[in-house]
Write a structure and sequence with these properties.
single chain, mainly alpha, 3-stranded antiparallel sheet, 14 helices
Length: 364
Amino acid sequence: MREEKNKDRRQFDWVLLFLVLFLAVFGLVLLYSTSAYNGRVKFHDPAYYFKKQLFATLLGLAGLYLVSRLDYHWLAKFSPGLYLMSLGLSLAVLFVGEEINGSKRWLSLGPLSFQPAEFAKVAVILLLSWYVSQRARKTVGLLFMVKVMLLILPIVGLVGTNNLSTAIIILGIGVLTIFVSNPKYVQFVGIGGAGIAFVAVFLSLESYRLERLAIWKNPEAYEKGFQTIQGLYAIGSGGIFGRGLGSSMQKLGFVPEAQNDMIFSIICEELGLTGAVLLMLVFGLLLWRLMVLATHAPDLLGSLICGGIMGHMAMQVILNIAVVTNTIPNTGITLPFVSYGGTSVLFLLGEMGLALSVSRREKR
């Protein structure tokens, strides 16, 4: 019994855990620095956002520990039920969801609010990993690719009605899962074309989405381009080493809701190019560890779970930084572990727990 415990402890991926804890603590520090002004003005409490995020982070760390102790094979068996639950919650958002800043994405549970789209990402990663691993010898061909995409289209459609960016990430997770399990690459040209067509249709359904494209091309010509312009001012004014932690000027009402999607611009202003590059390096190390886990996983299921988590993290980090630097139109994507969002950090830590569960059984 003692030998099994020592072996389990030795195989646990401490590097991944350290990177996750570093990002969680770093995110809390930067969130407090960024949100103190808004918290004081709106709620007469500079620590308002920090305290809510701290509660969600502690809850997420408890979830990380519990999930990491469970066998991911056992968790995968419940993936169809979790996926159906995510469909039900996403459907409920359309009818009884709470609208905040013009978007209906939240379900209110008393004093707490919950964003089902974040739960949907985890449910899709588990479902696709389980589904593909059950059909390991039938992952070649267009029919298999179509089946996988049809499997996630209902949740993509429900989430995409109010949250196009998250719908794109879920689609990306599906494409990545197929790519990892399929030895052929030509078919992905067709998937890429279908994905572009899907995004084009969703863009055309709502006028505000087309407006975002126009704002991206010329933010100075639109009132709603104010946030983008102020974010770029923050990035530029930070220089190489920044103004210093807590010394941002743009967070004082110039960048609206700076603690949310645009927090990377405040990081650039306070910590400069050096701090921004170091943060991106930590994210890069996290993705590297997830890739290592996917490579050394004991079976296809574990490999696909780690690959799906890695893809989710990579897409979200790249899209957020691209939006803040105005490389792509504004999509409303948060920066993992750093942006304000209790539901987001809770399920991100849950995903890390899944990856650590795989690490306990990986091949050495």
